[in-house]
Design brief:
single chain; 174 residues; alpha/beta; Rossmann fold; two-stranded antiparallel sheet; 10 strands
Length: 174
């Protein structure tokens, strides 16, 4: 199955799962992610939307614990990470994605990247949303790459391409 078909398959899977289950699974995943990042200084963290694994509580917990929190933004067709101190530092983009109002890339080290995905395989490769922004960014990233995904989205049919970058670990709710 090609990647476009896999994207549709996993979007449909999430749309047809009980939202209460997805919420509970997201809370469990955020707890597991906290265990990974609780002792680091800085974290790259996506701001969840739609049927992604929610990261809102984790983001707030990081801010409350005085971590450097950097979130992604596409600037000049490249993904950069921008430090925020509160969700009010972000605005909705024309695509409906919450992203920092600033365009100033964080210059320091980001210890852990928490990465969104639609699906994953046993080799820790992810299926993203098809634009390649994360793979381009992760190519030069040297910290811990930690993906968050629902267990139902593990897919043996996902075959990685040469440009795909594997995560160091993928957390699921189970």
């Amino acid at each position: 199955m090609n990647k476009a078909a896999l994207r549709n398959k996993h979007k449909d899977l999430r749309l047809n799962v009980d939202p209460v289950y997805l919420e509970a699974a997201s809370l469990r995943l955020q707890e597991k992610a906290w265990e990974i990042i609780k002792d680091v200084s800085s974290v790259g963290l996506y701001i969840s939307m739609d049927y992604e694994v929610s990261t809102r509580a984790l983001l707030q917990r990081c801010l409350d614990n005085h971590k450097i929190v950097c979130v992604p933004k596409i600037v000049r067709n490249q993904m950069i990470f921008i430090k925020i101190t509160d969700l009010s530092d972000c605005l909705k983009s024309p695509y409906g994605i919450l992203e920092p109002s600033s365009n100033e890339a964080y210059k320091g080290k980001i210890d852990v990247q928490i990465i969104p995905m639609l699906a994953f395989n046993q080799r820790h490769f992810r299926l993203g949303y098809g634009k390649g922004y994360y793979d381009a960014y992760l190519k030069n990233y040297t910290g811990l790459k930690c993906g968050l995904c629902f267990s139902m989205d593990e897919d043996a049919e996902l075959i990685e391409s040469d440009h795909d970058i594997a995560c160091d670990m993928i957390l699921t709710e189970i």
